[in-house]
Design a protein that fits this description.
Elements (H helix, E strand, L loop, with lengths): L1 E2 L2 E2 L8 E7 L14 H14 L3 E5 L12 H18 L3 E5 L3 H10 L3 E4 L8 H9 L2 E5 L10 H18 L7 E4 L8 H9 L1 H8 L4 E2 L5 H7 L7 H14 L3 E4 L2 H16 L2
Parallel strand pairs: 3-4, 3-10, 4-5, 5-6, 6-7, 7-8, 9-10
Antiparallel strand pairs: 1-2
Helix pairs in contact: 1-2, 2-3, 3-4, 5-7, 6-8, 9-10
Length: 271
């Protein structure tokens, strides 16, 4: 799959690291980390040096109980950052947004792909913006409740609905990536089940899979750990996800996950 200028072999053995760049004051793990643009670019340079192949820029926290901000504020936070990253670094940039106006502004600023946590079900217009730009889209599973009759089957059907919405805008399947939505519209047990069921989701949708488990509550609830002590749990889940077929991993700590996933790849490729 081509994302911007770069090719990603998502059917091959290589795991790709997506470094999280939250330019927000209130994200659950790293909110308010950057005082100005120089801090932002320093962090991007650090993540690239540690092995990130994608930078995911987010301007609105989506932690549990988050406050929705205006399109204008989210654009003001993200568009200048995307533009600055693309001017300075040869790196793929995705924009984490579920709002059409924000997606359009981010793509104009140079983003290579939209990462929609609502899978085009909150606002379909990010799909319209992606189609117009000729770029791809990441469709995450999400719900505003935890009511399921057949959990993994329902997740698959929900994701297929998102795929159909994207297709309706003319986005081809070879420009789509799915995300099982760990931490969104799911209980702790659901989150464990969806990670366990990733291979089935990939098999039944036929699309590449991104996994975003970094420092999430399922780790904290399982291990009884605060957000600052969830790296080992993150790595464990990412390696499990790799063995189930995921090939993009959205993380805060690039260095540790890069090393762990490179080790998993070496084992997978051994003769």
């Amino acid at each position: 799959m081509n994302i911007g200028k770069h090719n990603f072999e998502l059917n091959g053995p290589h795991p790709y690291i997506m470094g999280i760049l939250n330019v927000t004051p209130d994200s659950f793990s790293d909110g308010g980390s950057y005082k100005d643009m120089s801090d932002v670019l320093r962090r991007v340079e650090e993540m690239i040096g540690e092995g990130a192949e994608i930078i995911d820029v987010g301007g609105e926290s989506t932690r549990p109980g988050y406050t929705v901000i205006s399109d204008e504020e989210e654009i003001d936070r993200t568009a200048p950052v995307i533009e600055a990253i693309k001017e300075r670094f040869d790196i793929t940039v995705t924009l984490d947004t579920y709002k059409g106006a924000v997606a359009e502004a981010g793509l104009l600023a140079g983003a290579d792909m939209i990462n929609d946590i609502w899978g085009l079900k909150y606002d379909k217009n990010p799909g319209k913006a992606a189609a117009k730009a000729g770029c791809g889209i990441i469709l995450m599973h999400n719900r505003d409740n935890t009511d399921y009759s057949d959990f993994i089957g329902d997740v698959i059907n929900d994701l297929k609905e998102s795929v159909d919405i994207a297709k309706g805008f003319g986005i081809p399947e070879d420009k789509m990536i799915l995300d099982p939505g760990v931490g969104f519209g799911k209980t702790r047990e659901h989150n464990l089940q969806v990670i366990k069921g990733i291979d089935r989701i990939i098999e039944e949708t036929g699309l590449p899979m991104l996994l975003g488990v970094s420092r999430k509550s399922v780790i904290g609830l399982t291990l009884n750990l605060p957000v600052t002590e969830r790296e080992e749990g993150t790595i464990a889940l990412n390696v499990l996800g790799y063995n189930s077929g995921c090939r993009i991993f959205r993380v805060h700590n690039v260095k540790m996950n890069r090393r762990a996933l490179d080790m998993a790849e070496a084992v997978a490729c051994s003769m």
